[in-house]
Design a protein that fits this description.
heterodimer, A: 217 residues, alpha/beta, four-stranded parallel β-sheet, 9 strands, 31% helix, B: 297 residues, TIM Barrel
Chain lengths: 217, 297
C-alpha cells in the first residue's frame, strides 16, 4: 500500500512557527504517520506534554482516522468548541492532511511534520520512494524500475560517473538505480533496451499543479 | 570553423590536454597565470564547470579568457545547473565567440558541493547534451526550430574505465559515441594494464581516447581518492612508492609517476593522448610533461 512518509520538523522550527500563538489544538492521524511514528496517538500525547512544558496552552487534541479524507471535517466538527479556542492548529499529519484540514476549517495551521515522499514500507521501519508521479511513465523500458524516481539525477540513459559498486554518489546507503535496472534487464534478457539512446524527458506529463478530470465520453 | 584542437585530434599526434579551474570570485590572476604558462605547451585546456558542484566563475568566462590569451579552450558543460534552453543558449554563445570545443558532462550532485540545498537540474544528461550539440550544428534547436547561423563544435565526453560494475558504464559510453562524441577523456587511471584492457574494447569505436592522469601529491591524497572518488583505484604499489619518497619529496615523486605513466601511454600507443588533471597545481603540468619526455606542442 502506498504511504505518505513523514519526519518531524525540528523543535526549533515548530517553536518559530508557533511564536506568538499560545493556544494550540493538536491534530494527529491514524494512518500513514502511525507507521513512521510521527503523528499517531503516542506522538500527539508527547507533543502535548512538550508544548505544556514550554508554556503553551493546549485547548485539545484528536487523532482522526484518515486526515486526508473528506470525512475529517465531520469528525473535527465535534471538536469545534476546543478548536475555536485555539490560535492555531498544530497538525501532525502529512501535508495532504494539513491541507485537507486547512481547506475544510479555514483556520491557521502549522505542520509539525515534513512530508518526504509517497512510498512504501520495504522493511520494518524502512520506507522507499517508488514513484514521483511524473506523468510520463518510462518503466516499460527499464525493467519496471523507475530511474526518474530512483536515480538521484533522474537520468534516463544509464548511470552517471558517480555510481560506485552499485551505490549512489550522494549516499552509500542508496542504491544506484541504473545498477538495479542493469541487473534486472540482464535477468529478463532485455539489456538491449538499455542501449537505446533516450531522448530528453518530457516534463510536460501534467504541468504543476496537477488537475485531471475523467472524460465523460 | 574547425578548432585547432580538432585538427590536432585528427592529425594523429599524441594529444595533451589539461585543466584550468576558474576562480572563486573575479580575481582572474591565478587562472590567467596558469593559462599563460600552459597555452603553448598543451593542445587544449579544459575549463571546469563548477567542479565538484562548488560555485565558481563560469567555465565560459574561463574559456573566453583562454581565447583572449591565445590558447585553445575546451568548454566543460554539465547538465546540473541549466535546463535545455540555457544549455543550448550557452552553446550558441560559446560558438559565436570562437569557443568550438565542448566536453559534455552530466555533473556531480549539488549535494557534493558548497550549495547543498540548491536544485539540481539534470533536464538533459551527458549523452543528450552531446546530441543537442549535433542538432544545433544541423541548424535546429531541440524544439525543432530553425537557427539563424549554425554553430560548429568538437564535442567530447568522459568515461570511467574502472567503474564497477563496468558494463552499464560501457553502454553509456557507446551511447555517447552514438550521440556524437568525437573524443573521450577518461577518469583518472593508474593501472595501465587495466587501461589497456579497456582500450582493447574501445579501439573499435571512431573516437579518440585521452587517458585521465591525476597528479598524486601524497599518500593520504591517493587513499582519499580510493575511498571517495568512484572508479579511481590507485594501486597499493604506487601508494607505497609515494609514501617512501624523502620528506618534502612526495610531489616530485607524483610528477615522476605521472610522467612515467604518460610516457608509457605514449610510447606503447595505448591511447591517443592524455588529459592531465593537476587539481590546483596546474603550474606543475610542464614538469609532468618534461618527466614524460614530451616536447612542447
Amino acid at each position: 500500500m502506498i504511504r505518505s512518509i513523514t519526519k518531524p520538523k525540528s523543535r526549533e522550527e515548530i517553536d518559530r512557527l508557533l511564536s506568538g500563538l499560545n493556544r494550540v489544538f493538536i491534530i494527529g492521524c491514524g494512518t500513514c504517520v502511525t507507521l513512521t511514528h510521527t503523528g499517531g496517538a503516542p506522538e500527539v500525547a508527547a507533543m502535548k506534554e512538550s508544548l505544556l512544558d514550554s508554556g503553551k496552552l493546549v485547548t485539545g487534541q484528536i487523532v482522526v482516522p484518515v486526515a486526508c479524507d473528506n470525512l475529517t471535517s465531520e469528525i473535527l466538527a465535534e471538536e469545534m468548541g476546543k478548536i475555536e479556542q485555539a490560535d492555531v492548529l498544530l497538525i501532525m499529519t502529512c501535508a495532504f492532511g494539513v491541507q485537507t484540514v486547512s481547506s475544510q476549517l479555514k483556520r491557521m495551521v502549522v505542520p509539525a511534520l515534513d512530508t518526504l515522499f509517497i512510498g512504501k514500507e520495504t522493511g520494518s521501519g524502512q520506507f522507499n520512494e517508488i514513484c514521483t508521479q511524473c506523468g510520463t511513465c518510462i518503466i516499460g523500458e527499464t525493467g519496471g524500475i523507475c530511474p526518474v524516481t530512483n536515480c538521484h539525477k533522474g537520468l534516463v540513459n544509464g548511470p552517471c560517473g558517480g555510481t560506485n559498486y552499485g551505490k549512489c554518489e550522494i549516499d552509500g546507503n542508496k542504491d544506484c538505480a541504473w545498477t538495479l535496472i542493469y541487473n534486472r534487464l540482464i535477468e529478463l534478457g532485455r539489456l538491449d533496451s538499455m542501449r537505446k539512446l533516450q531522448k530528453p524527458r518530457n516534463f510536460l506529463g501534467e504541468p504543476t499543479p496537477g488537475k485531471y478530470e475523467v472524460s465523460k465520453s | 570553423m574547425i578548432s585547432s584542437f580538432k585538427k590536432a585530434l585528427d592529425s594523429g599526434k599524441f594529444i595533451v590536454t589539461c585543466e584550468v579551474a576558474p576562480p572563486k570570485g573575479i580575481n582572474l590572476e591565478k587562472t590567467a597565470h596558469h593559462i599563460d604558462l600552459l597555452k603553448d605547451k598543451v593542445d587544449a585546456m579544459n575549463l571546469t564547470d563548477h567542479q565538484s558542484s562548488v560555485m565558481r566563475y563560469p567555465s565560459i568566462g574561463g574559456a573566453l579568457l583562454v581565447k583572449e590569451m591565445g590558447g585553445e579552450p575546451i568548454l566543460q558543460m554539465t547538465c546540473r545547473d541549466r535546463n535545455r534552453l540555457a544549455l543550448q543558449a550557452d552553446l550558441l554563445f560559446a560558438a559565436s565567440r570562437g569557443v568550438h570545443n565542448v566536453l559534455c558532462l552530466t555533473g556531480d550532485s549539488v549535494m557534493l558541493g558548497d550549495h547543498k540545498t540548491a536544485k539540481g537540474v539534470f533536464d538533459l544528461d551527458s549523452s543528450q547534451l552531446l546530441a543537442a550539440v549535433r542538432t544545433l550544428e544541423k541548424g535546429k534547436d531541440l524544439g525543432g526550430n530553425d537557427l539563424d547561423g549554425d554553430p560548429v563544435f568538437c564535442a567530447g565526453a568522459i568515461v570511467t574505465p574502472e567503474a564497477n560494475p563496468i558494463e552499464p558504464q560501457l553502454i553509456k559510453f557507446e551511447k555517447k559515441i552514438e550521440a556524437g562524441a568525437e573524443f573521450i577523456q577518461t577518469q583518472a587511471v593508474y593501472d595501465l594494464d587495466k587501461l589497456k584492457t579497456f582500450m582493447d574494447y574501445a579501439r573499435q569505436f571512431q573516437v579518440k581516447i585521452l587517458a585521465g592522469i591525476i597528479l598524486l601529491t601524497s599518500a593520504p591524497m591517493a587513499r582519499f581518492m580510493n575511498k571517495n572518488i568512484a572508479g579511481v583505484n590507485v594501486p597499493q604499489a604506487l601508494i607505497d612508492e609515494i609514501s617512501q619518497a624523502p620528506k618534502g619529496g612526495a610531489i616530485s615523486k607524483g610528477i615522476e609517476i605521472a610522467g612515467r605513466m604518460i610516457k608509457r601511454i605514449h610510447t606503447e600507443k595505448i591511447c591517443a593522448g592524455v588529459h592531465i588533471m593537476a587539481i590546483g597545481k596546474e603550474e606543475l603540468v610542464p614538469d609532468i610533461m618534461a618527466a614524460a619526455d614530451l616536447n612542447s606542442t
